[in-house]
Each structure stands twice: as C-alpha cells, then as structure tokens.
Amino acid sequence: MRNLHPPMMKMLLAALLVVAAASFRAADAALPSMAVGVNYGANADNLPPPKDVAAFLAAHTTIDRVKLFDANPAFISAFANTPISLAVSLPNSDLPSLADKQTGLDTARAWVRANLSPYVPATNVTLLLAGNEILLSPDPNLVLSLLPAMRRLAQALRLEGLTGVRVTTPHYLGILAPSDGIPSNARFRPGYDTKLFPPMLQFHRDTGSPFMVNPYPYFSYNNQTLDYALFRPNRGVYDPNTKLNYTSMFDAQMDAIYTAMKRLGYGDVDIAVGEAGWPTQADPGQVGVGVEEARDFNEGMLRVVSSGKGTPLMPNRKFETYIFSLFDENQKPGPIAEKHFGILNPDFTPIYDLGLLRQSSDSGAPNPSPNPSPNPSPKPAPSGGGKWCVPKAGASDTDLQNNINYACGYVDCKPIQSGGACFDPNNVQSHAAFVMNAFYQANGRHDYDCDFKGTGVVTSNDPSYGSCKYVS
After folding, report:
1. Residue 133 a catalytic site member
2. What is the mean pLDDT of the segment spanning 241-251?
3. Which of 133, 160, 293, 299 is catalytic?
4. Over the stretch 66-75, which tens digit does the pLDDT of each residue have?
5. Does pTM top 0.70 for this prediction?
6. Quick one: pLDDT at residue 451?
7. pLDDT at 367
8. Which of 98, 142, 164, 314 is the most exposed place for a label (fewest CB within 10 A)?
9. SS (H, E, C) the chain
10. Residue in 160, 275, 293, 329 annotated catalytic
11. What are the boundaries of the region Disordered (predicted)?
12. In this structure, are residues 253 and 190 in contact, taking their beta carbons and an 8 Å threshold?
C-alpha cells in the first residue's frame, strides 16, 4: 500500500530543515508544547523517504506518536532509536484468519514474528491496530472476526514477549445510533450495544488498551454549524439533561462516545482519537474548506486532547490522538478533499502553522508567525498593548452568556467566579467583558479575536476597576 520514495540529497534535506524551522512557529508561541500523534499516510508520489521524515519529526517537532496504515518495514525501521512511538496497522482482510479458533493464534504469532519482532524494541511500537473501521463493512463475517482477532493478537504479543504493545481498532462514529446531536442521549446502535461492545469494552478494560474512534466533524457539519465544527464562537448546542452547553462539535462527539460507553458500564475505559482533521482544499463550491478552517479545527482539537482541558463530561482528561494527516496524498482516490488533509508540505515546510515545531537551538527567541491564529492561546499576552475587548452596546445577555461559555474553555475564568476579583458586579455584561477581553489578549490582540459574531468591540479605554484588572 505504501510506495517507496525517491531519495533526497542530504545537503538538500539539511537546507530544508532550516527553512522549515524558520517558517514554522515555535510550539510555545501559540499553544503549550503539546505532545500529539499524527497519521503518516504515503499514498503519494512526491514524499521524502521515511528515514528523513522520522528524523525531522524527532528533531524538530513535538509530535511523539505516529500512526501507520500498514506494517511496511521501511517505515517501521525508519523510527528506530527515535523518541517517537508507532501505531502499526493490519489490513482488514487479515482478520478472519486471525479469528479462527483452531489456527488463529498460530497465525497471529507468525504475523507478530514477521512484522514486529525484528524491529522492537529499537522501534517503540505501542499500538497494534486490528483493521480500520471494520464495522463499516457489509461482510458480517469480517465484523464477527474483529473481537476474536483482537484477542488472538493480544495473546500472541504476550507469548512473543512484546508486552508493551496494546491492541485496539479504530471505529467510525456510525457505531452510535442516530440521534438528535445531544451527547447525553447517545447510545450504541441496537445489537452493537448488547452483543458486540460489552465484550469488546471488557477486552479494553482488561488489557488497558484505548477504545479508538475516528471523529470527523468535517463530514458532519452543514452551513449552519461550521463555527460549531471549527471551535469558533457560536451559540452552541444545549444538553437539557446535563445542563451543559456545547460550543464545539468535537467535544459533543467525544462526550457522545463516552455516554454510550458509560451506559454499558465502561465509562472508565480510555478513549483515543485515531483520525481527525480538516482539509485545506476540496471540490469547487465546497464551503468551509481552506487553510484557516483546517488550522482552526486542529488547534481547537489540540487544546481539548492535549492540554488537559478535556470535554464537558470528561474534564481534565487527555486523549491519545493522531491528527489526520502528516502530508497531502496526491495519489489517494476519491474527492479532492481526501487528498488535502496534510499539515506539512513534502519539503517539511508547514501548509499551516499548528505550533508543533520545537524551539530552534539556533535562536534564543520564538519566531513570530506570519499568519497569527484566530484561536486563543491559553497563555496570557504581555501587558502594555493599550487595547481591550468589551461587549458591543446592545449585545443580548444570551449572546454574551454564549461568549462566556465559549471563552472560558480557553482562558482562566476564576476571576469572575464567586470570590474572584471580577465577580462583582455579578451580571452577564460584566463577566462577559472580562472573559471576552481575556480571550482577545491571549491571542495577540487581533481585531478578529474580538468579533464574537458581531457582539464585541475593541476599545482604548481601560475597563479595569477596583481590584479587577484587565490584561491589555
């Protein structure tokens, strides 16, 4: 499935690394230094050799996990003696032979000996993925083979001494029953909820492997919910059962999975994100696709999965996550969008900046981004700008409360809580003024960070009062 690529001259690679370092924003310039995974597909004819990819990721990025779509030895061996861990995949077609009661374990052990044992522990393989989105298959035999194959693989790994490798499989969100989009109403599809997922979730609990899902807000949004999908200010979706207001589709999807698991008694099983991303190009006429949209989605997702922010029903949790994807894949079949989910060009320069590059040792200060992000950084900006963001006259309390709900996902809102310096006066207008300004300041005081769907305005008059000090 993966093609070997033309060699790249080492001198050229060294030069490209310098170019990439100069153009990729330092990690702490916009987001905290976040460890995150990435999907490394290579269905393209213009990509650098795997060894050069591994060397670049290890030396110049905070990416610490890579997910492969097969077990190509050139790719697995490329990550030997690097700090990057791998998730390696088996093809769907292998699962029935692994599930066989009589010969499945022997087949699984043979696969492990041929595809993993020669490379571990020099290459740190931590996940073995049994196929991909098996439950999309119309073949009932393949679906029935999934859990038995996972069990045989886990047993084979133990018997072959590879106890650090966990077994899981990525699921698409169609495993959930059709619903109204309210997370607390989510449940697995009928049949899956009684026959398939209880024993599968028990397998995950017993082995400590994560339950992996592939949430793709890109494939779920419509024109009315684009801001909701992209972590941009929006009215959100209110869950009347939990009294929570969701301002991001990704949060809602993750909490829907959690709710379905919890209904079966497995809310304690870890959830991993196998694939999630946003395309930078699509077919003509497709709205909501571009560099800014891709950056907004991935930055928002990174804050949820890697910063410890968590989701409304899973606060303070981190999620093992693999961004889709490392490179565009110009040979991939299907719509144009399928070819354009990459975050890096083949020369390692960024298609857009996610702040995943390590601080360059050649410079003592972060390189500024030529295209600052419209999403806020959790770190406050330095004071002294002389500009503040406040609610626009006439903005409704409903809109301002939505602004508070959204912004408090990214900035410290303790000052407006009871006992905080900015709690009084205790009203929506005052509280919104504080958090909207914190949101605006945290990302560098760009006018679009104070838009809040037309409810914010930038002022040069300091709104600070008493002990309530507004950052500027």
Report:
1. yes
2. 95
3. 133
4. 999 999 999 9
5. yes
6. 87
7. 31
8. 164
9. CCCCCCCCCHHHHHHHHHHHHHHCCEHHHCCCCCCEEEEECCCCCCCCCHHHHHHHHHHHECEEEEEECCCCHHHHHHCCCCCCEEEEEECHHHHHHHHCCCCHHHHHHHHHHHHCCCCCCCCEEEEEEECCCHHHCCCHHHHHHHHHHHHHHHHHHHHCCCCCCEEECEEEHHHECCCCCCHHHCCECCCHHHHHHHHHHHHHHHHCCCEEEECCHHHCCCHHHHHHHCCCCCCCEEECCCCEEECCHHHHHHHHHHHHHHHCCCCCCCEEEEEECCCCCCCCCCCCCCHHHHHHHHHHHHHHHHCCCECCCCECCCCCEEECCCECCCCCCCCHHHHCCCCECCCCCECCCCCCECCCCCCCCCCCCCCCCCCCCCCCCCCCCCCEEEECCCCCHHHHHHHHHHHCCCCCCHHHCCCCCCCCCCCHHHHHHHHHHHHHHHCCCCHHHHCHHHCEEEECCCCCECCECCCC
10. 275
11. 359-388
12. no
The Cα 212–Cα 275 span in angstroms is 9
Cα 91 from Cα 81, distance rounded (Å): 26
Q: What is the pLDDT of residues 82-104, one digit of tens each?
A: 999 999 999 999 999 999 999 99
pLDDT band at 385 (very low <50, low <70, confident <90, very high): low
Report domain extents, the chain: 36-344, 388-459
Which own/partner pairs from 337-345 qualify as long-range (CB within 8 Å, at least 24 positions apart)?
337/218, 337/279, 337/281, 337/282, 337/283, 337/286, 337/289, 338/279, 339/281, 340/279, 340/280, 340/281, 340/282, 341/277, 341/278, 341/279, 341/280, 341/294, 342/280, 343/38, 343/294, 343/298
Distance CA 267, CA 254 (A): 12
Band (4; pLDDT cuts 50, 70, 90): very low
Length of the chain: 472
Q: How far is residue 317 from each of residues 35, 64, 255, measured CA to CA in Å?
A: 14, 18, 12
Write the pLDDT tens digit of every residue in 120-164: 999 999 999 999 999 999 999 999 999 999 999 999 999 999 999
Per the DSSP assignment, residues forming a β-bridge with 90 are 130
